[in-house]
Structures are given as structure tokens and as C-alpha cells.
């Protein structure tokens, strides 16, 4: 006879699949001992640059029971965003994750549905949904729950589908069956380290966030330091270089989420179109996109930096 814990675990994983998640792994909600010294060192070396929010809630980042009282399980979920088509080669580039509707909205709705399902099917379960907007170490939890290993570029990797997916969590006060981590399959490969134009991957598994093109084009609000001129390879919002060169991403498959499909105008735009973009076009093309984070002025700043 299957016990309730196993039965509930299976129900949750099946529903996650039905909702379109790529995979679902579960780990015990407990203090992340291995991550604590790593995070502390990273912050002390100022690798977060102007992302001061990374310094906040240090304890909550490492201990889910401080985020959800009485929590027992961290349910980690992956949602594929690899596109079937990319921008034309004569364009300034946007990270693939930002092609369609802002993932925060898409995933939050799916997580709410999953939590609602758990409460309907299992009973009174309390929990919270997290999508990259609270102090949760997404990649650490996903790795702990067996969804992949953290690669040398510090992204989560799987042998089956590479790394082009979002990570999200439900932290709930329900005991479940827990998965175990998988082994690292980066081997001696240094493709991501060798390809990073700003040398942001300072050593295997360590990324200096303050040198990353994604940081400069999205997070940094001031002017981009002039010493990085000519190093951005036409990336104007985010950067996919370390993922594009990763051999495991040969196995990426196109997503099946209509909301992640790009605005029709996006893929056809040329450098000239971007240089002449108006605020109205920006609002139309990026109406519900994550690109809105950088604002029209930020995108113009980035394009100007690439042109000079």
C-alpha cells in the first residue's frame, strides 16, 4: 500500500506536469549549510555590484522556514523558455528569456494553480509561491532536489535539456518524499569561461555579477563603465553567451508556452530599427515583457553604448 507521503508527492508531480512544467523536484525545507559560506564570500567580495538587495534577508535566503512558518518541503519547478525562432542576425540582442510575456506573471499563475490543487486534493496546506522575486536561492534548491547540477557558469544544467528554463518554488508545510541531487557533468569543459567577453566567470562556478553583461544592461542604473566598450557582442538586454556555447544546450527543445512567444515585430527588427525606436513602439513591443525593467531610457542607453 502506498503511504500518504508518496501518494501526495506523486499527485503534486503529476499536476506540475499537467500545468506545463518541465520537471518538479522536492527537497526538505532546512537551512542551506553549504550555501551560507559561499553567499557570504560572494557578498564580501562585492560581486553583487549595485544589487544591494542581495545583502538583505541573509538568513531568509538560506532558511525557508523563516519565509514560510512551519514549512517542511521546497517544491522546485522548471519551466522551459527556449524559443523556436531567434532574432535576426543583424540586430542588437535580447536575452531569450525576455522574448515573450514577463515570466513572473506566467509562472506565478501556474504556481497559484498548483497550490490551489494541493489544498483541494490534500487538505489544509499552507505555503507561498516564489518566482525570482523574494530571497530564495532558486538554483541551490533546484540542485538539491535533483533537477540538475549548477554548472561552471553558475546556471542550473540538465543533461536532457540544457539550461534555458526558469526556476520557481512552492514552499509548503507538508511533509513529502524528497529527491536527491544529481552529479556534475561539466567535466573539463571550460566553454562558458572562455566565451565570456567581460571575464565575469572569475573561476569555475563563480560569477562576478558586477562584470556580467546582464548586470550592466538590466541592473545597473548609472552609466556603463567605459572600459567595457566593445565587449558586449551586441547584447542590449541580458546576455546568453555562456548558455549558447554550453554543449548541453544542444539538447534544448522549443517551449510549448504560447505566452512566451515573441511579439511579431521583435524578431524582424534590425539595428537601425532599434536605434530609431520610439517610446510608443517600445511600449507596444514590450507591453508585458521583462524588458520593461530596463525602461525605455535604459534600453536607449544600452544601444548608445553598443554604437559608440
From TrEMBL:
Keyword RNA-binding: no
Reactions catalysed according to its record: epoxyqueuosine(34) in tRNA + AH2 = queuosine(34) in tRNA + A + H2O
Main location: cytoplasm
Ranges for domain 4Fe-4S ferredoxin-type: 174-206
Chain sites annotated for binding [4Fe-4S] cluster 1: 186, 189, 192, 246
EC main group: oxidoreductase
Known EC number: 1.17.99.6
Organism superkingdom: Bacteria
Cofactors required: [4Fe-4S] cluster; cob(II)alamin
Binding-site positions, cob(II)alamin: 61, 132, 156, 167, 214, 239-240
Keywords tagged on the record: 4Fe-4S, Cobalamin, Cobalt, Cytoplasm, Iron, Iron-sulfur, Metal-binding, Oxidoreductase, Queuosine biosynthesis, tRNA processing
Entry's Gene Ontology molecular function annotations: 4 iron, 4 sulfur cluster binding; cobalamin binding; epoxyqueuosine reductase activity; metal ion binding
Gene Ontology CC annotations of this record: cytoplasm
Keyword check for Iron: yes
Pathway: tRNA modification; tRNA-queuosine biosynthesis
GO BP term, example: tRNA queuosine(34) biosynthetic process
Residues that hold tRNA according to the record: 221
Subcellular location, record wording: Cytoplasm
Family: Belongs to the QueG family.
Function of the molecule: Catalyzes the conversion of epoxyqueuosine (oQ) to queuosine (Q), which is a hypermodified base found in the wobble positions of tRNA(Asp), tRNA(Asn), tRNA(His) and tRNA(Tyr).
Subunit structure and binding partners: Monomer.
Protein name: Epoxyqueuosine reductase
Biological source species: Jejuia pallidilutea
Amino acid at each position: 500500500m502506498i503511504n500518504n507521503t508518496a501518494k501526495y508527492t506523486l499527485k503534486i508531480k503529476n499536476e506540475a506536469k499537467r500545468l506545463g512544467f518541465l520537471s518538479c523536484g522536492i527537497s526538505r525545507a532546512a537551512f542551506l549549510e553549504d550555501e551560507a559560506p559561499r553567499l557570504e564570500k560572494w557578498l564580501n567580495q562585492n560581486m553583487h555590484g549595485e544589487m544591494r538587495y542581495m545583502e538583505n534577508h541573509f538568513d531568509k535566503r538560506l532558511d525557508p522556514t523563516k519565509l514560510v512558518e512551519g514549512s517542511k518541503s521546497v517544491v522546485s519547478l522548471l519551466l522551459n523558455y527556449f524559443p523556436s525562432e531567434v532574432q535576426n542576425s543583424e540586430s542588437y540582442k535580447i536575452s531569450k528569456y525576455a522574448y515573450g510575456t514577463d515570466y513572473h506573471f506566467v509562472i506565478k499563475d501556474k504556481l497559484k494553480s498548483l497550490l490551489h490543487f494541493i489544498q483541494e486534493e490534500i487538505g489544509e496546506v499552507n505555503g507561498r509561491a516564489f518566482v525570482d522575486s523574494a530571497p530564495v536561492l532558486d538554483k541551490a534548491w533546484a540542485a538539491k532536489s535533483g533537477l540538475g547540477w549548477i554548472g561552471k557558469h553558475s546556471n542550473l544544467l540538465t543533461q536532457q535539456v540544457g539550461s534555458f528554463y526558469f526556476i520557481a518554488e512552492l514552499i509548503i508545510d507538508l511533509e513529502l518524499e524528497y529527491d536527491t541531487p544529481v552529479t556534475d557533468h561539466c567535466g573539463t569543459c571550460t566553454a562558458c569561461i572562455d566565451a565570456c567577453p567581460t571575464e565575469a566567470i572569475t573561476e569555475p562556478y563563480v560569477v562576478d555579477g558586477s562584470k556580467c553583461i546582464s548586470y550592466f544592461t538590466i541592473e545597473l542604473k548609472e552609466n556603463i563603465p567605459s572600459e567595457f566598450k566593445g565587449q558586449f557582442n551586441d547584447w542590449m538586454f541580458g546576455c546568453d553567451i555562456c548558455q549558447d556555447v554550453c554543449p548541453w544546450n544542444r539538447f534544448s527543445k522549443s517551449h510549448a508556452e504560447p505566452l512566451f512567444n515573441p511579439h511579431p515585430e521583435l524578431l524582424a527588427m534590425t539595428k537601425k530599427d532599434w536605434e530609431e525606436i520610439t517610446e510608443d513602439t517600445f511600449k507596444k513591443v514590450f507591453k508585458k515583457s521583462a524588458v520593461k525593467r530596463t525602461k525605455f531610457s535604459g534600453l536607449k542607453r544600452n544601444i548608445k553604448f553598443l554604437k559608440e
